[in-house]
């Protein structure tokens, strides 16, 4: 067919061609409209409960996609900021001693580095499908280069495709973890939470860390009860007597809120948390000396308010970085569970697997415990090495033999961190420490992650209070003897 712009085509033929194209476009729109109406009719024929359920599922999926996007964007921005700081430091260290670079030029360069270049930004890294498509007659995207100033002086600079105000790039460190989730934001949030709790008449607060809320409330209840019973450490009572109530309360807490974790504590004999909690309740030289060296508080822990769950991590450098970078992070409990799940022990592969080469591997503590927990029979004995990797992670006897050989029940001093943890949270990595396990991972096909408790509710609070009152009153009455 000749082009409609061909001068050989008459005006009448052009009109006919335009009419045919218009009719074709009209029929296409009409067919789409009919198809849309049919879909609506089919949807309306479903019961309300099904339509509501479908909409709820769709909302949940879209919300999860938004959370994933926000998480990936935060990590991307943190990485860009880290690269910018690294380059700036390198330039400062290697500058020509014969002359000072122009200050305005340096400042301009740094400001330029601190913002994202939208043209070079690869949206595919977000890895999600956009659920909505704009109408054909509407603009597909606003860009700062194509938008023109409006009559009131506003431009697309104030509403750009990144969803952020570009003036933020002029605020120092706004994209860093410290600015968004560090110590200062945490203090602001905690103060606001404390005020709201007072207004609501609650004796406990809701923070970004439900795990820490449980711990703080239990410690408060336990200490108040001990004070009511007249407990005076290093006075009429031995400090040693505080460990039993602490053990009892922590066992109750984990059994109620994290039953899957009790197998972990039982197998590892991880008593360090009991000693840590006793010291937090009654700080003294006696309780401090019983702390495992890896659990002794750092300067950052002592000087800064932070979620209490951070204290449960047996790696000081990770604790300090969490306090500095993630105190106000709403996902701090998940970070803690990822860290504990990532406890590993290094070993030669030939010690565990028959015929394996002499290479270093690392095994997660949780992987062996999960296998051991599949059987209640502990009398069966297996002799290492196991026939193959599958047997090691499917046979409770072989898993128990490997667990004992790797001294996983001897405390935190044997543990390192799975490198996968630092791949997920690179800002927590400390190149000056030897916390990261070396070698290759030896793991089952499926790995479980430890859970964290749900937020406090009145029923749980009352259960805690009743348990502590009953247990300590009973223990105190029995210890006084029948003649009391």
UniProtKB/TrEMBL annotation:
PROSITE patterns: BZIP_BASIC (PS00036). Residues 15-25 have a biased composition (Basic residues). Signal peptide: none annotated. GO terms for molecular function: DNA-binding transcription factor activity. Residues 14-29 form the BZIP domain. InterPro entries: bZIP (IPR004827), bZIP_sf (IPR046347), DUF3425 (IPR021833). Coiled coil: none annotated. It comes from the Eukaryota. Residues 1-25, 89-116 are annotated as: Disordered. This is BZIP domain-containing protein. It comes from Fusarium flagelliforme.
